[in-house]
Amino acid sequence: MKNTLVVVAAMSALVSVAAEFSVFTDRGDAAGYKCGDKTVFTVSATEKGKLITNGTVSVRLDWCGGKKLLSRQIDLAKTNPFKVEGKLDEPGFLRLSVSGLGANVCYSSAYEPLKLRKGSPSPDDFDSFWANARAKLAKEVPLDAQIVKVAERSTKAFDFYRISFASFGRRVYGYMSVPTDKTRAPYPVNLEVSAAGFGGWTNDMAGRADAINVFFSVYPFEPNWKWKELGLEKTTYKVMNDEYRGKYGCIYSQAGISDGRESYFFYPVILGIDRAVDWIAARPDVDRKRFFYKGTSQGGGFGFYLTGLNRNFTRAAMFVPAITDTMGYLKGRQSGWPSIIENNSRSPEQRAAAEKWAPYFDGANFASRIRCPVRVVVGLADNTCPPAAVYSAYNEIKVQDKGIYHGVGMGHGCRAELYNQVGNWLSRGNDGFSMDAKGLELVWSEEFNGPEIDRTKWIYEKGFVRNKEPQWYGEAKKNARIENGVLILEAHKERVKNPKYDPANTNNWIVSREYAEYTSAALETRGKFSFKYGRMDVRAKMPWGRAVWPAIWTMGVEKGWPACGEVDVVEYYGTAPGDPQGNFHWSDKQKSKKPGGHVSSGVYHCVGRVPSDGFHLYTMEWTPDKIVFRYDGEIYTEFDIARANQPDGSNPFRQPHYLLLNLALMKGSWDGKYDYLKDTTFPQRFEVDYVRVYKTK
């Protein structure tokens, strides 16, 4: 796991006016660094795709947005790209900030983040305070549920309602849609609290025909889908914040905490929505086994609040959650939004009061009270809800069924693929953390539990093999070995003699090179095991480097390439660190003029969890008609086998295939204009936990 490329358009937290910054590190920054390791950031500054050759930029390294570790100016006339080095000796995030020339970028490397702990312990009376507050509200303030149907938003498929419920000193407002087909009840519930700010995301909600959707705003006025044409941002949201600024010197999300727990803005909101959840869960058309929460930013923070307080939720997803680690500054790091303490410090007295009461509203203190399965998404370049603050809450969650997704280079926002992947888990319960093998019979497996690679199952490829790749495949233990039940294929930068060297044969790349400058390993089961149809699971962890090219693939046992058929369950290009690729290769001499009639079909798949951030499950499902690839259970490629039908009636994908595992290297880009090897640190490691092949019973 050696090299992180940040593709500016898709992988970096980038704000660009004139210059564009791209960043990569010498290792994957999702969870790859141990305390004491050095991170080497390489930064390129470009304009319209060309390196900038004049001007200066500022760089800063800090610990979790807190303690400054380095600050200096870089003269681009002297060096571009340039490197910045640093390390952490304690768990956290080493954050690089680069600014200048009208642009800025933030990027982090992670150091054992699962060891991060929240800024302060929970107050001794935390549970009793919230239990008493809920009981007091129920006793003193009638629920007064107001449910008003909105004819213009209702359809044949669902009825749309405005909803509101009473709380201390105010009401909480939102929407609810209910399917009209009562024969399909009970329905799952999707409940959401809005993110902060003001716009469509705080004023509107879509209805559904197959679920009860519920949405709440946190503001003390009704949301309105016509907010823009009515100018509500100025007449409601701005007026509200102006009032709080005049009284407290801060906006709504920071207001009132210095006056006491019950005076904080979110206090009546939390309690009001909490009691609304109970009202919704009691409806006869609700499926209480499918009661889901999701929220982003402020709404993510409310996910900790509500699921920590309320036992009705059966599953929850928090995207880049805010309102966590409010006391993070005590450990010298940046606290999570809205930085309650830091924004209530106009006087020593105000700050002291805020410090006393803020822990009662720290999502990290609610996290340990959560009892339902949870998924959390964190942006590793998030300056608003910094990753250390998010991890401090995530690490407090006690349930076994939890998971965290890394947005590598992602700022305060969430990519569509992460929303989709976690959304699939939320609604269907499958984000690919495991795959069920019921109804299947295991016919071959390799668990790599022995002391040595089992040569009754595997043979080694040797020498220069294919694609004019720079690595020499061999049998050395440093290149292929078993460690702790895991197969290690490892590439090294080292010079080895080519025993087949023939200086007279300059047209044959396999023998014309006297030396190889890199070594690696490739294993295959040719002649020892092959299979036809069924399912193959491979749990593996990819390396991280611009030049890496590991693959899990199969080839047919009959005919030469490409007529034999090649199935690339995954081939992972280090130049696209979020995109595992599935490919198919075969021969069609009528359609292709390439050698052997080579044709191919494939797809890149941008995923939420970067393949080098840990072990992931790569699956091939094979029938006589179709081949399907899955990444952690999610389908990312499907192939119609009939596309490869041959004139003689044969098909390369309807014959037995054998398995290959290899770690190749790419010297340069396909156009030959860039040498990726110079940006890659060695050794590089491709790890395989197991290979399992099943057939249908």
The major β-sheet equals: 10 strands, mixed
Q: In terms of structural class, how would the helical and strand content be classed?
A: alpha+beta
Helix % is 10-25%
Distance between the termini: 38 Å
Please mark out the parts with pLDDT under 50 across 5 or more consecutive residues, or reply none. 1-17
Strand content: 25-35%
**What is the 3D shape?**
globular
Computed over alpha carbons, the radius of gyration is 28 Å
Would you tell me the overall average pLDDT?
Answer: 90
Query: How many strands in all?
Result: 36
Tally of contiguous helical segments: 12
Describe the model:
There is one protein chain. The longest helix is centred in the middle third of the chain and has 17 residues, at 232-248. The model is unreliable at 1-17 (pLDDT under 50). The protein has 697 residues and is of the alpha+beta class. The protein is globular.
